[in-house]
Every structure is written in structure tokens, then in C-alpha cells.
Please model this.
Amino acid sequence: MTETVGSPAGASGESAAGAREGIRVQRVYTTEGVHPYDEVKWERRDVVMTNWRDGSVNFEQRGVEFPDFWSLNAVNIVTSKYFRGAVGSDERESSLRQLIDRVVLTYVAAGVEHGYFATDADAEIFEHELTWMLMHQVFSFNSPVWFNVGTKSRQQVSACFILSVDDTMESILDWYKEEGLIFKGGSGAGLNLSRIRSSRELLSSGGTASGPVSFMRGADASAGTIKSGGATRRAAKMVVLDVDHPDIEEFIETKAREEHKIRALRDAGFDMDLGGADSNSVQYQNANNSVRVSDEFMRAVESDGRFGLRARMTGEVLDTVQARDLFRKLAKAAWDCADPGIQYDDTINDWHTSPETGRITASNPCSEYMHLDNSSCNLASLNLLKFMRDDLTFDAELFEKAVEFVITAMDISICFADFPTEAIGDTTRKFRQLGIGYANLGALLMATGHAYDSDGGRALAAAITSLMTGTAYKRSAELAGVVGAYEGYARNAEAHQRVMRKHAAANDLVRTYHRNDAAVHKLATKVWQEGLEIGARNGWRNAQASVLAPTGTIGLMMDCDTTGIEPDLALVKFKKLVGGGSMQIVNQTVPRALQALNYQDEQIEAIVEYIAEHGHVVDAPGLRQEHYEVFDCAMGERSIAPMGHVRMMAAVQPFISGAISKTVNMPESATVEEVEQLYFEGWKLGLKALAIYRDNCKVGQPLSAGKGDKGESEKAVEKQIEYRPVRKRLPKKRPSQTVSFTVGGAEGYLHAGSYPDDGLGEIFVKLGKQGSTLAGVMDAFSMSISVGLQYGIPLEFYVSKFQNLRFEPAGMTDDPDIRMASSVLDYLFRRLALDYLPYEKRAQLGVFTVDEREAQVNGTDVAPAGQEAAVELDTMRSTVDYSKKADEQRAGSSTELLELRLGKAADAPLCMTCGTKMRPSGSCYLCEGCGSTSGCS
Model:
């Protein structure tokens, strides 16, 4: 914990040590006289990372040192991404101690130099506390800090940048250059092109202007080149255009038109898959596009009115359009290809702390950082699960203290940071924008028994977010009394105070539902009141304090189950094991959630075992239906509705200085009208930005049909061959078996006939009285299935379609291998799977005998590699090990594992580094295999 002493009012500017008294620091996590490194057990590990598909080695470093509680994945990510020095050289880092010391000691030295600490003892305590928190994965700085701080490289600490471009060729060429420099440093940038005159306006020479969309082509090509050649990660960029720009329709349709081109080229035989040989010819694919809409425009949409498009140079109206038609085109383009997103300009600027200096016109690539042009933001995120007590309540007091440490360190970094351009450095030093945030919200809500889409879940999320930002601004006000308010504060003091009051007023409107969120909210209220009082005396050190970033790579570093504000991806996850191999595990948060919901240990064990087998909670034994919603996830059997995501964003947005990086996923069946509704509700609910993604809206799918493997001669001339299925009839005499069964009290018989080579070829089901409607329907159904089997339809296809179907009769069965069935068809096809499918195929479908399930629970049928697997099996009897089965060959990430369970492909790209399918992380994608991200944080 920290406190300030000796703080003159209204101070501004930097301070040399000794000019003012600094902050005093109290220990929270550490013990006096004991270094944090001496409190943990360290071990050596070998890091060997391979391409999941071809087995080639992407990275190898042996003998690295980490605490024994760090997971294999976290060790792999940190070793390959953040250790500096050439691999194999003496300069190469080989221990987490070296990495943390490199960063923390640089921060503390800068803090001492610039007068942040009252005494050397306070500086030492601060060093130990930061070290402990980083080592124990309580928080993490954004990736550029780990890349650059304490090395011989430029000390770039910011992940997010906003550029500016004016209506001159010199400015446009500077944009290309500045963007490239930012990409080279492993960060992302965004900008607004609305100052560039439209293609309907004249140049001073008398010619017609090209318009902003044409200049986007050059910038897109540049980003694509740097993306494939960058040393740290792919380029990320955002392009914004105001809704009143005369070229707005062309901008809206830019990427949708390219998507239509992709479809045409694919149908003509070109390789248009992600990373395909012919995909580079497509334009505008390296940026996220967003339209800046005003309240005036949205009100015109609401009233079905007209809206004017204005010339950039004179401001005169060049054309008027029907607002609702333009809004429909925006929604239709997003429905087609997920671009453009939408940013709500008036809402953004209503929460702007520095309007006297300039408007907020753009954002970073992931839409969470929004502030002045030519500025930057460094990020850090806290792991929320680290603040959950044993009684499953949130430790608000500990969280407050952690935020104080982190925000202090973030502000210190601006004192020594380097920036890609002088303009960005000048603005950042004058306004000192910070972006503290968090990860693991989805896991925390589930673990405390809250549904993500619930009033209680939103109340707890809002209270935590309010406490975080309130504490950050309170600490910022305290720092202003020690080392001065930000340079631009004096000019913007009234506006800044107004925004602080808006945050505090929004906090007062939070309705609590449980003693957990009530306790957090009570402390948040106290913190806001104290922060306003201190800020009124001292001003604030930072123009911005918080954002909600994707937390991709750093989320893996902290072993987070969920990233940013996202819910859990699914209830089962793919886990790599120390020493090789992999396993499927039920999320650790599931037993915690069941405990929070007051289930007994025996019930928890049965429910978790069911989830391990089925991948969802529907019909889990003993689980009450009113608790199903607690286990809803982003994907799977019960997925959260799109508006559930939007409502969560709306709950926390009033307590975020910037915005929220999140994409709202929609099913493939979603309509354009539903996209319109989401964009409209986002405006009504006070969001600053919103982006959607509709499943299968992009052609560039991660699963390729292999078109690029054809020879040139085959491409030139392809024979038109028509393939027809051939029926393979059963012989007159064939082996068969009959099974009697009972499902929910209904009795019946299953007769199954086989080919002599033991392949199922026919079924007959007797259910109901002869001559009844039910008996007739089952006869027809049996005939249809039998003919399908004889025409070559695999049994596993039928099993995947009919298992878990729900209708009466359902319930208990008399089959020891299938104790519960959600319908007769669910029972029949799981029984057929057990009798006729090999273990490898049944494992993919989640169908096991009672002996197999018992062996999996006891760990007797597998030999897990490494101590980490042993810990999983000892602590969680729900583990199902697929490392020796087919899934080991087919799944390389949680997304791929989920695809095997759901039987459909997810619209996630393959990692450019290791080939593993990535998973959503905010509005970006994250690779669980190597830690690469498609975004900027």
C-alpha cells in the first residue's frame, strides 16, 4: 500500500529527487527481510515449441528457470516471446528472475530519479512488491515492456498509438512512414482519415481528389509487408472515417466488396484461404475499419430522417442521404464481412478529459484506447482470479492496493520511455495516458456463481471496474501532489473534473444484488469520494487511467482462463503437458462455481464428470436448470446471446477512461436487422465502440480444401467427374444382435444387423404398440437410417447428429453404460456407438463405457507426462486424457478441441508462427500455442 506526504497544491511538471517528498510504501504481499524470489520453489525446464501440424521445431531453449507453479504454456510463451538475447548465446536470458529484474529495476531506478519515493526503503519495498506480483501472475505489463525495457533497444513501453493525417501529400506519406515504424516495434496504430478531402472535391490544381479510400490501399500494402516480416508480431491497424464524409458509402463497402471478390476467386479455383498463395492480391485486409457516427446521425436513423454529407475543406453539404438507408448499408457490410465496426463520437467526446486541447477522433486497432491524435498508451492488466478469497468473495481491499502499485509503476514508465515519433512523445509526456485493465472476468463470474449475462454478474463487474478506475484516478491525484499534474491539466482542469464527477455519479447508480458486489461497490464509492477531494487540490497526474484491452499474450503469461472482459470460451479446454502430450480438462472454475452454488462434493464430482464427457451442462445429473446459465460460454451447447455481451459492455463502460476491446459474436443465421439492432442498442446504452462478427461471414477459412496443391496442368484442364454413392447391400445371412432397453419408463428393442466384416448395416427399433403412430414412425426412421448406412454414411455422423437430442421419453435407463438419456434417439445412437465404433472415434464424440470413464477418472488407463498432469489428475477427477487418442493428432488448441466436440469449424485464423488455430481475444485473436496475437496489446 502507498500513501503520499508533503504535496503542494497545483504542482505540475517533472521533479528531481528531493524537490518534494515522495510516496511512502507499505508491504502488502512481501515479508520484510525476505526477497520474493526466496519464497518460491524454482525448477529448470526445457522449452521446445513445434508446429502442431508438421512437427517442425519453431523454438527451442533448454534449462530455463521458472517457479514450479507456472504452467507449461506460460513458460513457453515467456521464454519464446519475452526473453531477450540471441538463442544459444551467453547474453540470452534463461530465467524469469532475469526478465522481471530487467523490467522492475528499470522502473524503480526511474522512480527514484524522478522523485516518486520518500526514502530508499520505500523504493526497495516497491521493488519487492512489483517483483512478487509479477512472479505470482497477479498482473502483467503489456508486451512492449517485456520486449524493450532494460535492453539496448529503444525503451518503447506503449502498445497503442493514435496517429493523425492531414489533407496534404506530405502528411499522407508521413502517415505511411510513422505507421511502419510503429509496426516494426511490435505495436499497433489507428487514425481518422476524415480530414482528407473526398473524391467529390477539387484539388487546388483543378483536378479531382483521390479520396481517403484510395490512400488506404498503399497503407494496407505496407502493413501487409511488415506483418509478414516483423520480428515480434503482426502489424495491427485501425482506420476510421466520419459518417458525414462524402466518401462514407465507398468506405463502408470497401471490405465487403473485397469479400465478394474473394468468393469469386475461390469459386474459380484460386487459393483464397488464410495465408493462401493467391490471398495477397486482395486489398484492405490488414486493417480494422470503423465508422464514426454522431448523435445527430443516430437520431436521424431513429426518426428516419435525412442526413448531410459535408465537404472536408468548406464544411458545406455536398449531398443528403436517408440516414436509415446509410445505417442499413453499414450493418449489411458488417454482416457480410465483420467490417466496419462502429464508434459513437459524441459519447466518446462527452467523456473526454482534455477537450480544450483537441477532440478524440480515432482509436488504436482494438478500439480500447481513445484519446488525442499523435498520442500513445501503455497498458497493464490485473488477473482478477488472484483476488478471490477462499470463501469465493472478491477481496476488494487487496485489489485496491494492487491497483495503486500498478498505476504508480505505469506512470513512472513514461519518464524514461521512448516513442516512435517526436509528436507522439510530446503528447504522451504532456498528458501521460495510462491504460490499466484486467483479465479473467469471465472466469471470476463463473467461479463466484454468477451468469455472465445476468444482473448479478453485471453488478459485480461494474463494481470491480469502478473500484479499479476510481483507485487509479485517486492514485493519479496523489501522484500529482508529489511529482505534479500532467502538463495539459491546467488548460483542461474544468473538463477533467467534470468527467471525474460523471464517473462518480455513474458509480452511485450501480445496483447491487449480493454481499459480494455490495462490498466492492461500497469501497468504490469511498475511493471515488476521496479521489475527487484529492484531485480538487492537486489535479491529476494522468489524463487517462483505464482501458479494457484484449490481454492476449499477457493473459497466457498470467495463466488466465479468460481474456479481458470476455466470458469463458467453453467448459472444456485443451491443455499441454510437461514432457509432451496433451489432455482435455474441465475448466478449473467449474468446481468453484458449483461450490459457490452450494452443491455437495459428491454432486460436484458427478456434474464435472458429466461435463468432461459431454462438454456442456445440459442434463448434468443433479444440476438444477436455474443454474445452467452460470455455465454459459462464448461457444458451445449453451452460448451467450449477442445482447448479453453488449449488456456486459454497457455495465462497465461508465467506469473505463477509454473503451473496451471486444467483438460480439453472432450466429451464422443472424440477420442484417439484428446487426442494426446491436449497433443501435450500443448507442442507446452508452458504449463508445462496438464490433460484431457473424460466423462464416469470411471466405478465408482455416480449414483448406487443398486447392493450392493442384498441379498446373490440373488447374488448366479439369475433368468433370460425377461421383454417385453406391449401395452396399447386406448378405442374406448376416450377424446381428438385439438389445432391450428402458428410457424414462418406456420399453423397447434395438435390433442391429452387421456386415460380415463387422460394420453396422441396418437397424430396427421396436417402440410402442404395433399399428400405433409411434411404431410406424420408428419403422420409417429405422429404414431411413439403414439405407443411409448401406450407402456409406458413417455411423459416427449419425451419432454426432442424434446424441443429446432432447424430447420425451427421457431420463433413467437400465443400461449400466448409459445411465441417463435425453431421449430415445440419444440412447440408441450412444448404444450403437459403444457397440460398433472404435475407441478413437468414440473419444471424439465423448461416448465411453462405464469402465472407460472410471479408468479416466482414476488415471489408470493413461500415463500422463510430467508432474503437471499428475497435479491435474489429483486435484480434479474430471480429467479426460486424449493424449494417446485421435484428438492429440487433430487438436492443437482449445478452439480446435471445441470444433471436434461441436462438429463445426470456428471462424478463427491459423497462427502465422506455429499453425495452431487461434481463439478470440477481445477484437483480436490469440494463439495458445506460441502466444502470437493478431492485435496490439
User: Anything to note?
Assistant: The first strand starts at residue 2 and ends at 4.
